[in-house]
Design a protein that fits this description.
Polyamine Oxidase, Chain A, domain 2; seven-stranded mixed beta sheet; FAD/NAD(P)-binding domain; 20 strands; 27 helices; globular; five-stranded parallel beta sheet; alpha/beta
Amino acid sequence: MWIIVAIICAALATFLYKYVFRTSGPNPFDIDTRAPLKPLVTQKKEKNKVLKQGFLASKVPEKLDAIVIGSGIGGLGVAVLLAKVGKRVLVLEQHDRAGGCCHTFTEKGFEFDVGIHYIGDLLEHKPFRCMLDQLTNGQLQWEPLDNPFDQVVLGPPGNRRTYPIYSGRDRFPDELKKFFPGEEAAIDEYMRLVKKAGHNIWFLGLLKLIPVPLAKFLVYTGLANRLSFFFRMASRSVTEVVNELTKNNDLRAIFSYIFGTYGNMPKDASFSMHSLMVCHYLTGAWYPIGGASEIAYHMIPIVEKAGGAVLVRAPVNRILFNDNKEAIGVSVIKGQEEIHVHAPMVISNAGIFNTYQQLLPKELQAMPAIQKQLGMMKNGAGGLSIFLGLTGTKEDLGLKANNYWIFTEHNMDELVETYLKGNREESAKSVPVLFVASPSAKDPTWEERSPGKCTLSLVSFANYEWFGEWKDDKVTNRGTDYKELKQIFCDSILEVVMSVFPKITRDKVEFIEAGTPITNTHYIGAPKGEIYGADHGTARFSAECNATVRPQTPLKNLYLTGQDVFVCGFAGALAGALTCGSVILNRNLHLDAIALAKKTKRVDTKKLK
């Protein structure tokens, strides 16, 4: 009996080793491609030459190796990885500028970011930082936020409690203990669970890289849960875990506050997903110098250098297949015309729902394997954004390089659930959770680029159904009722902002606009206005779901990348790109990035001596 068990274990270990450490394909991280830093380009006309290259059939490169649908970080990330090994890639973007949630827009002289508010885990020579350096040839620079990087505000005016959230593996819990004397054991246990679950994320990636039969074996024998603390904790909600740790309601709220970065209220959120976000910021938080558009601006030239292109105003209306159900290209709508573009491989960064429900022929949508994947996922929460343009410097307005999370009280589950189930006009008057960030205060180049002006990006959640009746109207003319509903949101949220930031007054407000879930559908192609892709509840993080939804689709030569392949956010979407690239290139790029990070650290250390 034990001999059989030993043989099975040895065979399993051999298979895992083979697929974890496989190195047969080309390596995009083979050499350090960081180049001397070039001056920051601030002229919009110059940047737009890169970011706003419109689609024409004549601009499509010949002999393509791959087509990528969508130019968010998941799409651009995999395109650059392929370009670095000589592949000719065409990236197609339906919006009028590249970048997806990394794009920026300008109104009345104010530049706003739409999705990049703060990124963690960017210490020098760490794998994530190394990977971003290589994907931008060292041209993308990062500015650290203040410490504390987050301020959590609980309660109504008159009874507000503000808790600073510090980075630092020791400082984060140590500062919490100062505010919550007597809760040291609860804080220590929370940190132990968070670190243990978050650091086990590698097993999620493993399930997506190994062959399907082996992944299923690990899932259905229960070995995936036994071997991975991440999967053992994935089925437990944040509320369930933190309520076992402490009875202090404010501390429960502080343990849970960061749920806004992935979109599920604590009672529905997977503790493992939550742990990833807490760990992500333990070493600090950063913002891209020059603004979020710098990300795509420095990635696109790498795609172009390899003979590829990134073209905008290129809505893909369907993926093309041959009689053998193999992806062979895409169809792009140009005016009233359909233009077919062919390539031996199609990679979709459009999200699992858009890809399977909108871009596949009906007969392929109906395939049991496609329906199984769709049945494991659901749409995430709709996002609401308010863009505020202010007159004055950051000093005048009391703005710093940090973020505020403002909650009307500590009972987050109850507050959010009541809000989302409420009448839209009434809910708009009392938004229970609000994220407040100032890109202008975080970017050291801002004052030179936009003197005397500041911006705030305000983010919350809203039901897609509240706005659904206007979804088919022209985006710039959705009628008086729609504008009035947006105004209710803007007025109530502005009141909250002014109560927390007393130097911001109505006379300082030069521009205010709301982006609703249907705005997100129009500009970033989110089918239900979600900003974090597919839902990040407990079901999303079962071992079975992660072994099933992977870069390879049930259709040959069609791959998925981005948030829905891995997890949400900038880092999650990039991890999705890295996983997709690993499958396509037949090597573990996650390990390649780690190896290059170690190598560059040694080289840079020698240079300093």
